[in-house]
Specification:
Layout: H1 13-20, E1 24-29, E2 36-38, E3 41-43, E4 52-55, H2 56-64, E5 68-70, H3 78-90, H4 101-111, H5 119-142, H6 156-184
Antiparallel strand pairs: 1-4, 1-5, 2-3
Helix pairs in contact: 1-4, 2-4, 3-5
Length: 186
C-alpha cells in the first residue's frame, strides 16, 4: 500500500529498484524469440548465442525462467569496485559511480548471482563502498550552508537517503538566517 505524499518523506528502496529496472542490460539468451513490443519499447529478437540488450525487468524475468544469462555491467567486478573503494577512503570527494549502481547491483546479485564472478566478494565490496560513501555524506551534511549543499557524484540511493534530512535542515537554516535580519530592522 502506498503512503499519502504528506506521510512519505522519500522514495523507498524497492521503488528505486523499480525505476532502475528500466535501464538496459546485456543478456545471452538461451531461447529464440521474435521482437516483442511493450509500452516502453520493442525488444529483441533473441537469437542464442548473440548478446542482446533488454531492460533489467525483462532480463530478470527471463533469468528466473532460466531462459537467459545476464551479463553483468562492466563496473560490477572486483577490480573496479576495489579501485573505487580505495578512492573513497583516500580522497575527500565522492568518486564517480553509475547513478543507480546500488539498485542495479542489488537486482543482479539477487536474481543472477550465478552469472557474476565471485558474488560474495562483490557484495562485501559494495557494502564497504556504501559505508565509506555514507560516512562522507554525513560529514558533508555537517558543513551544511543555508544556500546550498554541494556533494557531487552522489548516487540515486544516497540522494534519497539524505533528502528528508536535507529538506528539514534547509527549512530550519532559512528560518534562522531570516530571523536575525528581521529583528535588526526594528
Amino acid at each position: 500500500m502506498a503512503l499519502p505524499i504528506s506521510l512519505r518523506s522519500s522514495v523507498t528502496p524497492p521503488e528505486l529498484e523499480l525505476i532502475a529496472s528500466e535501464q538496459l542490460i546485456e543478456i545471452i539468451p538461451l531461447i529464440s524469440m521474435d521482437k516483442t513490443a511493450f509500452i516502453s519499447g520493442a525488444y529483441g529478437p533473441l537469437r542464442p548465442p548473440a548478446k542482446c540488450r533488454l531492460p533489467i525487468w525483462m532480463a530478470t524475468n527471463l533469468k528466473l525462467k532460466k531462459k537467459c544469462h545476464i551479463v553483468p555491467p562492466e563496473w560490477l567486478n572486483i577490480d573496479f569496485l576495489q579501485d573505487r573503494l580505495t578512492r573513497e577512503t583516500s580522497q575527500p570527494e565522492f568518486c564517480a559511480m553509475p547513478f543507480r549502481f546500488a539498485e542495479v547491483a542489488k537486482i543482479i546479485l539477487d536474481v543472477a548471482s550465478d552469472d557474476v564472478e565471485n558474488p560474495d566478494k562483490i557484495r562485501s565490496l559494495l557494502k564497504d563502498l556504501r559505508e565509506a560513501r555514507q560516512a562522507k555524506s554525513r560529514e558533508g551534511i555537517t558543513k551544511l550552508d543555508h544556500s546550498e549543499l554541494t556533494l557531487p557524484n552522489l548516487c540515486s540511493m544516497e540522494i534519497n537517503e539524505i533528502r528528508p534530512f536535507f529538506i528539514r535542515s534547509m527549512g530550519v537554516l532559512t528560518q534562522l538566517v531570516r530571523e536575525p535580519s528581521a529583528a535588526g530592522d526594528i
